[in-house]
Specification:
It contains 12 helices and 22 strands. It is an alpha/beta fold and about 400 residues long. Strands 7-10-11-12-13-14-15-16 form an 8-stranded parallel β-sheet, with helices on both faces. The mean pLDDT is about 95.
């Protein structure tokens, strides 16, 4: 049986045998080493990349929406498909749809929609991210305060019932009891800390209990002070916790991104935190999230009526470009923050996140201007025009 052969590329996060042979092959939806016999097989499809970059497909763990579609009560299955297509066009082959604090009936409906979407696209969607509702009203961001609350027993049962669908949940550790945190963790759902006013000690207590993730570091959390380093200081002090960061040039100063990278290394990963405005075909000047109006400002990004940031309109390729151009990252380090580290966070790095034999062939091929030229999606090669 023939294969797809990719030759003469610049391979990132790749197995040494791929770098040594300056190529790889894709067969049965998996990456395999380049074998001379494949080159003699007339059924193989050979592509000379001429020095283009080859990297693992990006994995975005925080997508509120894109392509004019938001994760809200009006979402329909076709909306998730539109999101998938837009992400694919921009190099994100795996993404986690995110829902903020909302009514119970909306949450139930979105859980069912994502469960079906995940079954249809298992390599695309690892599940949903519940960003709330068990968060701090003091650090809520643009979450509607009416739906922020403390958990009850029925909520713990909901996590257990949908553990196959929930990639992770973001909570504020100070608003839940130690027993509730323990019960949440025993469901098997990953817990991340975010939108929290937790002190250093409260954060450290949650870490000792087993919480090893933090959602969009610096944003939606208590700031660092000399007398209380808060959650940011606790993350810096930790040797094991992984944290996401929004690398768009607006949410976190590039010097702080660089500092976080220095402190956390491969435990720091990027998320887009994108909203429906990312890739919106109608280019609307405003839209609604959780009942709040958000404005698209060319200079300040996405802001609410008080001028506060409300997500982004970027993709992860924009983050990778920003990391390399403004934050001192090498290209390999930036790609790792957008692929291998988020794969490790979700425990899917045996299949995704690097260019190694045996892994699922989810690859992106791009030029020096960070423009996608080809994508290998679940083993199938498509050029940029076929992605439109």
């Amino acid at each position: 049986m023939g294969a797809i052969i990719l030759k003469n590329g610049r391979f990132h996060l790749a197995d040494p045998i791929i770098v040594e042979r300056n190529g790889l092959a894709v067969q049965n939806q998996r990456i395999i080493p380049l074998d001379p016999l494949l080159l003699e097989d007339s059924s193989s499809e050979e592509l000379d990349l001429g020095g283009l970059h080859v990297a693992p497909g990006f994995i975005d763990l925080l997508v509120n929406g894109c392509a004019g579609v938001g994760m809200d009560a009006d979402l329909i299955p076709e909306g998730l498909e539109r999101m998938r297509r837009w992400q694919l066009q921009h190099g994100t082959l795996t993404f986690v749809p995110t829902v903020i604090s909302c009514p119970r009936e909306t949450l139930s409906r979105l859980l069912d929609l994502v469960r079906n979407f995940k079954r249809k696209h298992p390599t695309v969607c690892p599940g949903i991210h519940l960003e709330g509702p068990f968060i701090s009203s003091e650090r809520k961001g643009f979450h509607p305060v009416a739906y922020i609350r403390r958990p009850i027993d029925a909520d713990i049962q909901m996590l257990a019932d949908y553990k196959d669908t929930i990639a992770y949940i973001t909570v504020a550790p100070e608003v839940i009891t130690p027993k509730q945190l323990h019960d949440m963790m025993t469901t098997g759902v990953r817990i991340s800390m975010g939108h929290t006013n937790a002190t250093f000690m409260e954060t450290a207590s949650a870490m000792r209990a087993g919480v090893q993730l933090v959602t969009h570091l610096y944003n939606g959390m208590r700031p660092v002070s000399g007398r209380d380093p808060g959650i940011v200081g606790a993350v810096m002090f930790s040797k094991t916790v992984a944290a996401s960061i929004i690398a768009d040039g607006r949410h976190v100063h590039p010097a702080l991104v660089r500092l976080c990278h220095h402190m956390l290394g491969e435990r720091l990963y990027v998320v887009s935190d994108c909203q429906s405005a990312a890739g919106d075909p109608d280019r609307k000047s405003a839209f609604t999230v959780g009942g709040n109006e958000v404005f698209v400002d060319k200079q300040r990004g996405l802001i609410d009526n008080k001028g506060a940031l409300a997500g982004t309109n970027i993709c992860l390729m924009d983050s990778v470009r920003y990391l390399t151009q403004a934050c001192g990252y090498t290209l390999d380090e930036a790609i790792e923050a957008a692929s291998l580290t988020p794969a490790r966070v979700l425990g899917i790095d045996e299949e995704y996140g690097s260019v190694e034999p045996g892994k699922i062939a989810n690859l992106i091929i791009f030029d020096d201007e960070y423009t996608i030229r080809y994508v290998v999606n679940n083993g199938f090669l498509k050029n940029s025009s076929e992605l439109l």
